[in-house]
Design goal:
- By secondary structure, the protein is α/β, with parallel strands linked by helices.
- Helices cover 45% and strands 15% of the residues.
- The protein has one domain: 3-Layer(aba) Sandwich (Uracil-DNA Glycosylase, subunit E).
- It starts with a helix and ends with a helix.
- GO terms for molecular function: 4 iron, 4 sulfur cluster binding; metal ion binding; uracil DNA N-glycosylase activity.
- It holds the Pfam family UDG.
- This is Type-4 uracil-DNA glycosylase.
């Protein structure tokens, strides 16, 4: 079975079996999207309004900015895989609660095991805190982190970045995010 087929099967399973309370208020589950064979997986926080309506991650303004940054390093959306730690939109785009993150955790870990990326890029603090609960994104953004993750069964490389939405609201952060984003090709070279 191909990775794509495994992901499709996984999403059908978890769509039926996920017990996350957000399922009650969201329109639909927002599955990860993109290249199942990618060396890079981007992990965001949770679907927003546009994503909840469209059923795909990062299709709003933050997604448009993400696509622009990918083009800036010679990549396209189709080259990468992108998902969220929470698969359902929190009401009014509030931050996901710890129990909601926990309810979607097995789903996320299963996605990562199937894809087995060389590099996981965190888009914002919520996804970073899942794997690095004591770090502050302001201290580690743009730095390559290596950590053994027992659930993934391997040492994994991570690159924490600010969330693209933060850069849309804070112009000063935009330059920082673009600068950090441009480190992705070098990080991949280092890992290889």
């Amino acid at each position: 079975m191909s990775k794509r087929e495994q992901l499709d099967k996984l999403n059908i399973y978890w769509q039926e079996n996920c017990t996350c309370d957000l399922k009650k208020t969201a329109k639909q589950a927002v599955f990860g999207d993109g290249n199942a064979e990618s060396e890079i997986v981007f992990i965001g926080e949770a679907p927003g309004k546009k994503e909840d309506e469209g059923g795909k991650p990062f299709i709003g303004a933050a997604g448009k900015f993400l696509s622009e940054m990918l083009e800036g390093i010679g990549m396209k959306r189709e080259d990468i895989y992108i998902t969220n730690i929470v698969k359902y939109r929190p009401p009014d785009n509030r931050d996901p609660e710890p129990n909601e993150k926990e309810e979607c955790n097995e789903w996320l870990i299963a996605e990562l095991k199937i894809i087995s990326p060389k590099l996981i890029v965190f888009l914002g603090r919520h996804s970073m805190l899942r794997f690095f609960p004591t770090e502050k994104i302001s201290d580690v953004h743009g730095k390559l982190l290596i950590k053994s993750i027992p659930e993934l069964g391997k040492k994994q490389a991570f690159l924490p970045l600010y969330h693209p939405a933060a850069a849309l609201y804070n112009g000063g952060m935009r330059e920082t995010l673009i600068k950090d984003f441009n480190k992705i090709p070098k990080a991949l070279e280092k890992i290889n």
